[in-house]
Amino acid sequence: MSQPSGPGTAAPLPAAPAPAQPRARLRAEVLIVLGLSLGASAVYAVVNIVARLTAGTPLSQQSTALNPSRSPRPYLDLTYQLLEIAFALVPVALALYLLTEPGRRATDRIGLTLRHPGRSLAAGVGLAALIGLPGLGLYAVGRALGVTVEVQAATLNEHWWTVPVLLLAALKNALLEEVIVAGYLIERLEELRWRPAAVVAASALVRGAYHLYQGFGPFLGNVVMGVVFAEYYRRRRRTTPLVVAHTLIDVVAFVGYALLPAGLLDLLGVT
User: Fold this and answer.
1) What dihedral angle (degrees, nearest 10) is formed by the CA atoms of 81, 82, 87, 90?
2) Considering the entire predicted model, what is its pTM?
3) Which helix or strand (DSSP H or E) is residue 119 part of?
4) The three-state (H, E, C) secondary structure of 57-109, written as one string
5) Is the pLDDT reported for residue 186 higher than 50?
């Protein structure tokens, strides 16, 4: 029976911190989150590259489209694009929910905040330059060697909403990838007591794997990006600069190509 409270009653003790989750439960949780998001994309990408390699057509003569049109009817296409962006962010919400602790929000835990916006922007721009320019080089080398497919960066029809949707798609990709393969995955693997090198390698290989459908050049480029981003997160515990950098890289890929000279596009093999 509970005791009445009053002036002479001692204050209740604060709630004890949540106990650490069993390792088997954590492993299952990681597999479920990845299976609902980028892990599934990685499996499909592996199957896709096997299909491409056995299709009888060289990789250099194959192509893949990013952000394709979903309908010839403009407003139906817009609806599909927005729904795809919204539902792709559901695993992000799940990962943040699972990382939330009593008295500590997941966004604070993984540094997905707007604190120090100037520093976050500067770090993001620096990371984008560090990764983006070599990434273009690896893509061009991959095309020259015949191990990378032609990437059609944006095949949406031209409407008043095309550029805003591409900008939202870039932000969606950044949030999905950085929250899950940088923030969530690294946090959970560290809780499972993986060594730092194994944590970084796992994050980088998952990132590379779901880009395999583009060929081996983008796979390698994204593994390198994954190593840099994972190590940055491991040392700084900040995903906001990673989101900024990833968004900038994708904005250039989705929208910026329209501003590049045709000769440079031909050199890169981009349409």
Assistant:
1) 130
2) 0.87
3) helix 117-145
4) CCHHHCEEECCECCCCCHHHHHHHHHHHHHHHCHHHHHHHHHHCECCECHHHH
5) yes
Beta bridge partners of 146: none
pLDDT digits (tens, 9 = 90+) for 220-238: 999 999 999 999 999 999 9
Amino acid (one-letter) located at 116: H
Q: Where are the domains of the chain?
A: 33-268
State the Cα–Cα distance between residues 38 and 44, nearest whole angstrom: 10
Q: Residue 112 has which token pair?
A: 């997905």
Of 173, 187, 168, 164, the C-alpha closest to 233 is 187
pLDDT over 90 at 121, yes or no:
yes
- Here the tokens at position 86 are 């919204």
Spell out a b/e string for 178-202, using b for 16 or more CB atoms within 10 Å of the CB, else e: bbbbbbbbbbbbeeeeeeeeebbbb
Residues 6+ apart with CB under 8 A from 189: 30, 198, 199, 202, 203
Sole residue written with tokens 């795809």: 84
Residue 120 buriedness (CB in 10 A; 0-12 / 13-18 / 19+): buried
Q: Which residues are within 8 A (CB) of 232 and not within 5 positions of it... i.e. 6 or more apart?
A: 127, 238, 241, 242
What single letter denotes the amino acid at residue 58? P
